[in-house]
Amino acid sequence: MKRTTPLFLLFLLTLTLTASVVGKPGQADVIETFWQKFSAAVRSGNKNAVAALTRFPVGMSYGIRSIRTKAEFLRHYRQVFNEQTDAAKCFEKAKPEKDSQDPKQFTVACPDSAGNEVVIYHFKQTKLGWRFVALDNLNEHHAPFVKHFSQ
Q: Nearest-5° angle of CA 57, CA 62, CA 67?
């Protein structure tokens, strides 16, 4: 009886570890789940849901002050999602592009009025999960984006 107890415990431990590894979704799945939720909120115009999936301050394009609070975000929602691009339309088909150098970041590119994909939405994995963290426009001359993104 004493011999079977350690073997049984080892079996249970192995089973538990296997179940925890198999049960965890891959990072691509987690990004896709977040993206579906975020893009659906933008497409439906649910500003509060979008704000809940946002980390503050939100870095903005060169020359535009960062958005520091939820209240400020709600006031500037149109500027973030409708001024430089039609994000709702873009997000219908856009797919996240993982950062090849940092797996905890991804971007989504949207076209400006001329059709050039220069409006870039930046997302980062935080302690609370994936969050929208910055907006950039590649047409604007600016200092390196890193100062906004890594805050």
A: 20
Confirm whether 18 is domain-assigned. Answer: no
| Token output for 12 | 């249970």
C-alpha torsion 35→40→46→52, nearest 10? -20
Residue 1 resides in a domain: no
Q: Is residue 96 part of a domain?
A: yes
Angle at 22 (CA atoms; ends 19, 28), nearest 5 degrees: 150
- Assess contact for 132 and 38: CB atoms under 8 A: yes
**CATH code where residue 32 lies:** 3.10.450
**Predicted TM-score of the model (pTM):** 0.76
Question: Per residue of the chain (151 residues), what is the pLDDT tens digit?
Answer: 555 554 444 444 444 433 333 334 577 899 999 999 999 999 999 999 999 999 999 999 888 899 999 999 999 999 999 999 999 999 999 999 999 999 999 999 999 999 999 999 999 999 999 999 999 999 875 444 443 444 4
C-alpha of 115 from chain center:
23
Amino acid at 64: I
- Is the residue at 21 inside a domain? no
